[in-house]
Amino acid sequence: MSRSFSSNFAFDIIQMVEYKEALGYKPSSYEWNLQNFDHFCLKNYPKATVLTREIVLEWCQEGKENRRSEYRASAIREFAKYLTAIGKDAFILPANWFPAPKAELPYLLTDEELSNFFSATDNYPSRANSPLLEYIVPVIFRLQYACGMRPQEVRLLKRVDFDFKRNTIYIESSKWCRDRRLSVHPELMALCRKYDVIAQSYFNDRTYFFPSQSGGAYRYNWLTATFHKCWKLSGNNNSSKRCVPYSLRHNFATRTLLRWAQEGKDFNVYLPYLSNYMGHSTFKCTYYYVHLLPEKLSCMDFMGSHGIIPEVSDEA
What we know:
The protein has 14 helices and three strands. It is mainly alpha-helical.
C-alpha cells in the first residue's frame, strides 16, 4: 500500500485495494482515484459512513473540469460493488452514467519527423549531474518505438529482463497483468548491449535497465518531459501537443500493419501475433489501428463484406 487514507471509508478502501491486488490487479489501478475520493470525503462529508448516491455523484461531477469523471466513476463503481459484497449499503453507479470522452486520434509521425526525432535523441545534451542520461535517451525511445512498448513498460524494464543471447525482452506484469516475451531485432539488441556496458560502469549493481540518478526507475513525467525536449530539438512541429511518448507505440502498430499490407500478408493470420506482441487484452484493441491507415488498406479484401462474412453453401 503506497498511499494513505483517513476518511471513514479508509479501512474499506484499504481492504478493497488489498483484495484486488490478491486477484492480480495492480494497486495503482485504484489507489490514486480512491485517495482523491478519500480526501473529498474528509473535506465534504467528514461524518459519512455510507456511500450514498449524493456522495458518488458529487465526487464524479467534480471531475468534469479535467475530464476525469469517467475514471472516477469506474473506481467508485468498483468500490461500491466491494462494499455491497461484504454486506454494506452502497450506491452502485450505473455503467455509462459518465460516458468516456471521445479519444483524439493518435499522432502519426512522418518518416522525416521520425528521422528528425531520433537524430535529436542522438544529440541529447550531456549533464554533469546525470552522466548516463545522454546514453539512455537514444536507446529508451528507440526501444519503445521498435517494440511498440507502453511508456510504463519501457521505463520499468529491469536488467534481468534482457536476454542478449536469445535477443528477447521479458515484460512482467504490465497492463491487465499480462506477462509477455518480445523478440527484438538483433541490431537493436546490440545497441542495448553497448548501452548496458556503459550503464554498468556508472551503476555496477543496478536493478533497472534505465536507472535514474537515484538508481530507481524514472517516473512517467520524466519520460514525457524528455520526449518533448527531443521533439523540440528535432525541429519538428512544436505546436503539436498530441505527440507524446505513447505516440511511438501507436506508430509501431500502424507502420507494422502498413508494411504487412504492402507485403500482401494475410491480416486474419498475422493480427493475433501483433495483438499478443503488444499485450492487448482483446483483438478489438489491435483492430483499432486499421482505421488509422491510408485508404488503400481499407480497400483490401479482408475489409470487404466477402472478407468478413463467411460463404454460405447452397445446401444451407
